[in-house]
């Protein structure tokens, strides 16, 4: 990694938690310089503008989350066990060292909905990738005979899993209650159990 690449990565690592906690609008260039200890000129010497830093920070946060989930999924043998990784990881999300500020997909999607079309596009792509991954696991479970094929609408099931996770994260964040999140993840466990 060149010095410039290391500096860029340093900026991303230091600002990713800020963007995920304060959002795009709430994060100022002063927040970025304070977090990194770099000058405004150094920031703009590595990134064209704040948008570019925000997008890189979103990608960084999503990759951290993806890596945690992927490592856990790879350890599982059955497709049901692979799906159950989602409620298990998200139930513990507040205590895990994944991303500060909660789920980056939820945070970015909510904030960028009407205010930042580029970030909204990245959040949408990430969500669609997640949906496709869940659909793949469900389809593979059907093909392996783990899940009952005729009664499963694969796309609806994938969307329901995402909706419960993101809804649970939102409720937990609003109420400050990890208990609410755990209860919703137990409901998601039952939905996955019922695929058999």
Write the layout of secondary structure elements.
Blueprint: H1 3-26, H2 29-36, H3 40-46, H4 50-75, H5 79-91, H6 104-112, H7 117-143, H8 154-175, H9 178-193
Helix pairs in contact: 1-2, 1-4, 1-6, 4-5, 4-7, 5-7, 5-9, 6-7, 7-8, 8-9
InterPro entries: Homeodomain-like_sf, HTH_TetR, Tet_transcr_reg_TetR-rel_C_sf, TetR_C
DNA-binding region: 28-47
Keywords: DNA-binding, Transcription, Transcription regulation
Helical/strand content category: mainly alpha
The ordered H/E elements are HHHHHHHHH
CATH topology value of the domain at 59-193: Tetracycline Repressor, domain 2
Query: Could you report the average pLDDT, rounded to the nearest whole number?
Result: 94
Ends: how far apart? 48 Å
């Amino acid at each position: 990694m060149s010095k410039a690449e290391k500096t860029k990565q340093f900026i991303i690592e230091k600002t990713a938690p800020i963007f995920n906690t304060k959002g795009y609008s709430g994060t100022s260039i002063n927040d970025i310089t304070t977090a990194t200890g770099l000058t405004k000129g150094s920031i703009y010497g590595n990134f064209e503008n704040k948008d570019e830093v925000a997008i890189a920070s979103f990608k960084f946060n999503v990759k951290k989350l993806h890596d945690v989930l992927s490592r856990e999924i790879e350890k599982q043998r059955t497709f049901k066990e692979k799906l159950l990784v989602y409620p298990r990881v998200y139930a513990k999300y507040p205590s895990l060292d994944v991303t500060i500020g909660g789920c980056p997909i939820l945070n970015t999607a909510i904030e960028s909905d009407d205010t930042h079309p580029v970030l909204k596009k990245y959040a949408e792509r990430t969500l669609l990738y997640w949906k496709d991954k869940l659909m793949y696991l469900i389809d593979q479970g059907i093909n392996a005979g783990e899940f009952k094929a005729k009664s499963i609408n694969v796309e609806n099931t994938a969307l329901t899993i995402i909706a419960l996770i993101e809804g649970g994260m939102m409720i937990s964040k609003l109420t400050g209650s990890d208990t609410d999140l755990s209860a919703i993840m137990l409901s998601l466990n039952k939905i996955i159990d019922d695929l058999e």
